[in-house]
TrEMBL record, chain A:
This is Vacuolar protein sorting-associated protein 26C. Keywords: Endosome. GO terms for cellular component: endosome. Its main location: other. The lineage of its organism: Eukaryota, Metazoa, Chordata, Craniata, Vertebrata. GO terms for biological process: intracellular protein transport. Component of the commander complex that is essential for endosomal recycling of transmembrane cargos; the commander complex is composed of the CCC subcomplex and the retriever subcomplex. Component of the retriever complex, which is a heterotrimeric complex related to retromer cargo-selective complex (CSC) and essential for retromer-independent retrieval and recycling of numerous cargos such as integrin alpha-5/beta-1 (ITGA5:ITGB1). The recruitment of the retriever complex to the endosomal membrane involves CCC and WASH complexes.
Automatic annotation (TrEMBL), chain B:
Keywords: Coiled coil, Endosome, Protein transport, Transport. Belongs to the VPS35L family. Residues 160-192 form a coiled coil. Its main location: other. GO terms for cellular component: endosome. Residues 38-68, 82-106 are annotated as: Disordered. Residues 51-62, 82-94 have a biased composition (Low complexity). It is found in: Endosome. It comes from Rhagologus leucostigma. One of its GO terms (biological process) is protein transport. The keyword Chaperone does not apply. This is VPS35 endosomal protein-sorting factor-like.
Amino acid sequence: MGTALDVRVKRAGKVYRDGEILSGVVVVTSKDTVQHQGISLTMEGSVNLQLSAKNVGVFEAFCNTAKPIQIINSTIEMVKPGKLPSGKTEIPFEFPLQMKGNKVLYETYHGVFVNIQYTLRCDMRRSLLAKDLTKTCEFIVHSLSQKGKLLPSPVDFTITPETLQNVKERASLPKFLIRGHLNSTNCVITQPLTGELVVESAEAAVKSIELQLVRVETCGCAEGYARDATEIQNIQIADGDVCRGLPIPIHMVFPRLFTCPTLETTNFKVEFEVNIVVLLHDDHLITENFPLKLCRM
Amino acid sequence: YFLRHARSRNYVSESEVCKLESVPLDFGDYHPLKPITVTESKTKKMNRKGSTSSTSSSSSSSMMDPLSSVLDGTDPLSLFAAAADPVTTAPPTDGARRKRDKDESLAVGSDFEPWSSKRGEILARYTTTEKLSINLYMGSEKGKATTAGSAVSEKVRTRLEELDDLEEGSQKELLNLTQQDYMNRIEELNQSLKDAWSSDQKVKALKIVIQCSKLLSDTTVIQFYPSKFVLITDILDTFGKLVYERILSMCVDNRVSLPDNFSPESVNDTAKETCLNWFFKIASIRELIPRFYVEAAILKCNKFLSKTGISECLPRLTSMIRGIGDPLVAVYARAYLCRVGMEVAPQLKESLNKNFFDFLLTFKQIHGDTVQNQLVVQCVEIPLYLTLYSPAIDWILQCIAYHAPDVLLTEMMERCKKLGNNALLLNSVMSAFRAEFIAARSMDFIGMIKECDESGFPKHLLFRSLGLNLALADPPENDRLQILNEAWKVITKLKNPQDYINCAEVWVEYTCRHFTKREVNTVLADVIKHMTPDRAFEDAYPQLQSIIQKVITYIYDFALLFSVEKFLPFLDMFQKESVRVEVCKCIMESFIKHQQEPTKDPVILNALLHICKTMHDSVNALTLEDEKRTLAALINGFIKMVSFGRDFEQQLSFYVEARSMFCNLEPVLVQLIHSVNQLAMETRRVMKGNHSRKTAAFVRACVAFCFITIPSLSSIFTRLNLYLHSGQVALANQCLSQADAFFKAAVSLVPEVPKMISVDGKMRPSDAFLLEFLCNFFSTLLVVPDHPEQGVLFLVRGLLNVIQDYTWEDNSDDKVRIYTNVLHLLSAMTQEAYIYHVDKVDSNDSLYGGDSKFLAEINKLSETVVSQILDHLKTLGKEETLRRQSQLALYFFNTILAHGDLRNNRLNQLSVNLWNLAQKHGFADTKTMVKTLEYIKRRSKQPEMSHFTDLSLRLPLQSRT
């Protein structure tokens, strides 16, 4: 019905980087001619911090970090007030994605407590009789490659009953020996996390071995902070009682929207960790934790 | 009132004038009906044009059905294809060849046994009677993960999920399904996958696929697992194809779709992005097994992303399988990966090998505690459990062995040996590797089979597999007997009849192929010995049947076959009638196919009579027509192959015996009558027409045989034709009273001809058949001499009376057509010398010698017939029948023209009237009329035909205005 507004960016993946030009079209479809008071395009980028339920109240009293932090906000006027012909009108645009000063363009990230989002908003102002039309379109920002920062940092690990912490009754544990390595804890976000794991021996049958990717979001300021860890994805790498002594590949692709390069700012932090979880048949759960450093190349 | 004058004719001179240029028939030439040769030709019928045609009885000189003989050879189409092939494969340019070579390495050839052929086998073999369950969780996992931290309260969320559930039929746990239910459910899922896809619910489609592949991690009711694998991988294949085609369709640029060998660069961004999305989605599937299967299913899509995608993915997926703990689940996952790999990138052999080696590494798990405990819970024995591995291992090895060098195969064998020479592996090696490879090393294999540790895998299966290979490829000459001895030593010790027969079935082929009847006899005797106790054969009919089939494929000399002493006792094991008949049919088919010479070997005759009797006795009220036809054709084939040479008496008594044996199959009786008639004619030929007292008596016996057999047939036209035919034979053999009896029987049968008869299962009007028969009959009657005690032309009159009384269709002219034809006969009868005779039989021409009383009788008859015709023509004066009137008038006119003496004024006038009647109402075909007139004019130029000139002047041509 009536007039429809749509914003389309050129790239299929909607992925842009700092310094690039965001191009696309605004599409207006209407049966009749459209009278308007001007069409403008706004690029917005902001960090939203949300406090988890347990921390609300404790914080709000002395800290104002819960307010959105604006990263970028600029508007251009696309079309001056006037008329658009009936049918489909495509108005092309080009928008430079550029930061002012030495502010950093964070990567798009959708977390639970931290959200970094970039949108293009198109507004068509109209006369009093007709409602203004608005359409927003999210686009994704990838940060520039962090050259030279990445050094491979392989980790070898051995898990035995003795290496475990937080064990209540060490005596009741079945004996086992699990060895393995991660090829690197410094990971390129587009490359999978790789490694190998060998169940050398285990008295109890193995039920499952999983890789748990955890993000750790920290919101805070000088007065104090809230730190929450949530699982992003859980990938099973072994199902059932696997063959002893046979290396099992560790392989995990980082999910696109839920990960970003490890981020540390004064107000918030986004970090990632991986847990190797071994579930034994008698419901013993063994977890080994590895902090990761993600970056984009 | 009307006198008919037949013109007198001199047939000899006439035929010389009119005869078509005669072409000698060379029977050596190719002729489409060649196997059927004319063996007798007795009566000659004169037709209007004056040329001669022959009514002949023909009999097939070859035992083979002409149709099957065509099928027997290479069929012309494939010959043509084979001939055309060199054209297409004609030496191409070097570049093109190189390209093809490359193509070949990229695609799997037709010599690779495809998965589809294994499918059915697996489904049929791995079945269960236990209850199955499907547990599908359609709830959105993703949804849960993202909403986990959201502020929506628990209560609201569960409600929303319930709504979701209703929408997607979310969690379903279906318990207590029978195997068939289960298969139906899976088929439903396959369908709903396609539906979801076509209605653009891609996420739902993916969920279905994930849930389905999840079922593969469930090993309860383990004996059904291979079949489950087949069913579910079907769904995965569907999914893989859907995704691939969808992405491919996105690549269509300007309506030009991508070539088959596209490079990733030519794929547009949208397609790539979609493809990438699929891979990301799949990479985030939580559980290992669904993640593996779904990714393997869309392996082909890697082609859109990069050139090396597939070659990078395969090794990764291969090592991913190491995470699957259950060895059975893992080995099937490997089989699936090999299957997809062979389809998408058969050139990547490395992963195939890696899969197999990985499998060998995990082989010890099979005997580990986890597996053993599971088997105890499910009450599954180790031998059964091990056989579950076979389809998967067979498949993997088949992929590896495809076009692989012998070195690799030897290496594989060595590796298997190292693993304690395991029986399971050995079996798979034998079923997957090339038969030639196995056969050449048969003795080694026998050694290995003997040595290999039992570990539960049944040894008879090993011998069976070896036997299958030996049926396909020949082992070295020197080893052959030893191989048989070694193998049979083990086989004969098998206690379980099923195990035994499965093995024996396979080895019979090897025995028949390489050894003499002595060995075959021994083997058959051994089978009988094993299968008789406790009527074990009852459960083994298919195998026993296949044994018979193999034996007759290799021993098709029936004299030799029946000299195998145990062959007939072996047949006695088929006690269930349907099976026995099937076996008999096989044997008879083989006999008809292979027997070249007629035989009188009493052993063959006895045995085959027994077999045919068995087939015949299986016929009952419920037997299908088709089945009866098949059986009769087989028995007929046999009867035709029996010949006692010059011992005609023996031959006849064989036919008598056959008649008593096969009385329920009409086609057999018909064949017997034909055979006996043929025998009578053969006797006549041997005696050169002059029967001695002995042969005359024999011929009369033949005739009597026919006479008493014909009434037992049910088809009226068969009876009529056989009466006529046998009458002709009797006449030819100077059995005049017998011939009369046949003809009388035929005459008295005519009134019984029904209006409709069933032809090939459809009801058809019988008039055309009757017309044909009567014409044929009248032609024969010309030469039949009158019976001294009956009146003149007794048979003709009798037949005319019957025709008169027969209830014809109201609107048919058949009666008049026959009458017109009778005029032909009558005119021929008035001639001084008849157009044809039967050798050594005096026909009416010499009996009466042109006696005027005889001629007067004929004239009286003609008069009656002509008046009948004219009456009928009058009744056709109505508007709607004018066309018929015109046709009949012209037909009658032509008859008079050909047979009448037109110098007679009244006849002349009649013909003019008929001519005018034919044209009166404008229904005459102008072309025909013009042609007829031209003919008359031409005839008038011949000597003694000058009156035709006058006639032609009196015949006006009506112009069409």
